Amino acid sequence: MAGSGLSVAVPNLMIEYRRPESSVVQLLTYSFLFLSIGNLFWVPLAAKFGKRAALLVSMALQAGALVWCATATSFSSLLAARCVQGFAGAAGESIVPELVADVFFLHQRAAMMSIYIILISGGSAFGPLISSLMVQYLPSTWRAFLWLCFALAVANIALICCVCPESNLQRPIQDTPERQTASRRCSSSMHPQRPKGAMRTPCTAPPREILAPIRVDRELNLFRATVMPLRLIVRPAVVWGILLYGALPYLPLLTANATASFTMSTLLQAPPYLFSAVSIGLMQLAALAGFILACYGGGILSDRIHTAINRRRAPGQVRAEDRLVSLLPGMALGPAGCILLGVAFRLVSFGSVFAPNIALAYLTHWHQREATQCLVLVNVVKNLVAFLFLYEAVVWVQGQGYLEVYLVMFALGVVTVAGALPLYLCGRRRVE
Q: Please, are residues 168 and 215 in contact by the beta-carbon 8 Å criterion?
């Protein structure tokens, strides 16, 4: 929300700091670069000291960075504050999906992941909408919006302290049905059976351990945890997830949606359009509508399709590639929205949540033991791609026009979604 909210204030920043449009847009995009770098720092820290501790420290740092942004008196000071803000905000991108994978069951994972993605993506649309009202009607303009974000950051710190559990717990390894059957045969001959009336007590961690502010893993090497994700870059499922999550939400959304937000604000406020800041902010209502629809399609509907497929199989045969079938209902809407952006801005937002949410659920299921490393790679690449595209967005649009920009995004979206087919076919052959 704080990262994209200033996109409607580009003309105000140009006047206040006497900088050209390209410099102001580049200032706003540096947070994406440090979002990419921050993922390499916060995730190993969360594995070493616990997710609650990492989230609390990062949110406190982000609150301080927002105060710095709101009180910045020079362009260089605002640039440095935006970099710190992006670095601190990276913790929520990889740690929160890992919390979802730790806490919720397999049949709930897509629905819970869709809620996470809609909040992340909805912030990029809700931020400019709220910021546009403050820029137009409040005397402190964009600084008032940053103070609002600071208040939300403080509220997040309180919520993390009260309701966020620590999920860095040593869980028992689940055996396969074959191993369980063999172990039962061996144990029945060596140990007497438990009485029928006896209850089996599940192994759960005490509340004190779950709500502990710090949980140190003394056996974990921080350097090794930092470089471990790099070995997954050669795996097909990880490569596809990186490309899809980098191409669909951050080319059409952060380069279609945010390119529209970051570059169209100056275009639409100038003659002959003469849009107000509020009118530009209201464009994000279409994005919010798309996010809400995609929350159902990429979450609840995906879980229902996956559950229906699994019911037809033998017990215990749960395949990760079955999740890819749920891409069929809406996989074409995101790329189509790039071509029809003028009348279907909502389609871009729908596709930017629908397909990536299913891709994340598939990726965390396929590489369940290495879900953290996969999410680190996905977030690092997606934010790096967002920074590179948005950094040159103004020059690209001014030189080639919007038509070429969105045609490139359309082609990338089609190619990445089509990559699910070979993954599905290869996964079936491997099982058979």
A: yes
CA-based radius of gyration for the chain: 23
Q: Residue 171: enclosing H or E segment and its boundaries?
A: none
Tokens of 398: 């001014």
How big, in percent rounded to 5, are the helix, strand and coil portions of the chain? 80, 0, 20
Question: Does the pLDDT at position 131 exceed 80?
Answer: yes
Tell me, rounded to whole angstroms, the distance of Cα 155 from its chain centroid.
21
pTM: 0.71
pLDDT at 261: 55
Q: In terms of C-beta distances under 8 Å and separation of at least 24 residues, what long-range contacts does 76-83 make, across chains too?
A: 78/17, 78/27, 79/27, 79/30, 82/27, 82/28, 82/30, 82/31, 83/30, 83/31, 83/33, 83/34
- The two structure tokens encoding residue 367: 């590489």
The CA distance from 418 to 240, in Å, is: 10
| Per-residue confidence (pLDDT) for residue 228, from 0 to 100 | 80
Q: How far is CA 226 from CA 44, 58, 112, 220, 372, in A?
A: 6, 17, 27, 11, 11
Separation CA 242–CA 374 (nearest Å): 9
| Torsion angle, alpha carbons of 233, 234, 237, 240, to 10 | 70
Strands (E), 146-215: none
- Name the token pair of 149: 């974000």
Q: What's the DSSP call for residue 331?
A: T
All domains of the chain, ordered by start, with CATH? 2-167+224-431 (1.20.1250.20)
Cα–Cα dist 40/377, whole Å:
9
